[in-house]
Write the structure tokens for this entry.
Amino acid sequence: MKAKLLRNGLLIDGTGQKEKAGIDVLIEGNRITAVGPGLQVPSQYQSQDIDIIELNGKTIMPGMTEAHTHLTWNNSLYIQDIDFAPIEETMVAAIKNAEIMVKSGYTSCVSAAARGRVDIAIRDAINRGSLIGPRLLANGAEVSATGSFTDLHPSHVQVSGLSILADGEDAVRRTVRSLFKEGADLVKLNVSGESLTPHARNEMTLYTYKEVRAAVEEAHARGKRVYTHARSSDSVKICVEAEVDIIAHADFINDEVFEMVVENKDRLFIVPGLNWLVSTIEEGAKYFGQEAIDATGYKEGLEIALKNMRRLYQAGVRILPGGDYGFKWCPHGGYARDLEHFVKLVGMDPMDVIVSATKYGAQIMEMEDELGTIEVGKLADIVVVDGNPLEDITVLQDHSKLEVILKDGEYITNLLEVAHQVEDTVA
């Protein structure tokens, strides 16, 4: 692997410190070995051994983390199209989606459930170098109660493609154990409903404390974590009390539960999944009709979610981007829309948004010592952007502006000219 010297960039290092102009970054192997102005080429390198890339003020930032990933969601119109698709077709789509994700500047991701063992197989193939994709914390099928929004089959069928139905503490324990046996890094429980389905609305709580706690005990005993879908206030309360690690949505929390989340902010991650709501409100009517979209209550729900995300942000809770991408109206590749929503709808400072996608992303990946910031010794997961996301966060949605993407020091994308001639200046 050639060394690489990125020259004269605007550095947003992911720590939250003010951006710095005129900065160089030296990458040797898969590590960042020097950061600063006017770096010189180390004397041991011949011209063929190092790529020198002049950035002319373009932004250097860490690779981002998508914290609510569904690689097996296949950009379908209906959830049933995902549920009933042949698993072979699901695998083909997921491989493509993994490549789309890393080429979108997201060099890491946390799965929020997948069909079968697809995530696990893709994770292992990416780690072997057989597939192009992000660093992946793999999940299995969602663990759901009978009557949940992923319980789509007739009542006499107990298992669906999207989820494994498990009712009661013993069944939950057995299911969680089986998922970890298959190689999952974490498991997902659907603790509340989702208003796509009339029988399991957002405001419904579908699992008890004891059932959720059973999953947490099994996960923590193995050094693993639990990820939950929880919209209702009661469902979030159960998750906090049961010591769940990652909570998706948390839309409808009341004051009591807000205080509980804040008290546990040092261990909790909240992933609101805002783009799911925004895209469904904005695009859903063309597919389903306005009446159906109004019936979801998402418009009113979004206002409540935004209010709660604002106060969680102001209280210092870690809120991460990740938006349930993988449906026709919110397809794969649009992941950075969540960053725009954080700025424009939640009111987050753009620098804080980038920290949430990078530094906090490394924390949720459990790789804080290796990823998430551009510092000496860290792995070289780096994105070069033709533009300044602090001035316009939407630039991260334009893939043509993501001119260099490095993962582990290797090019995923490079649209810039590389100079091989080593100058007289040497370290």
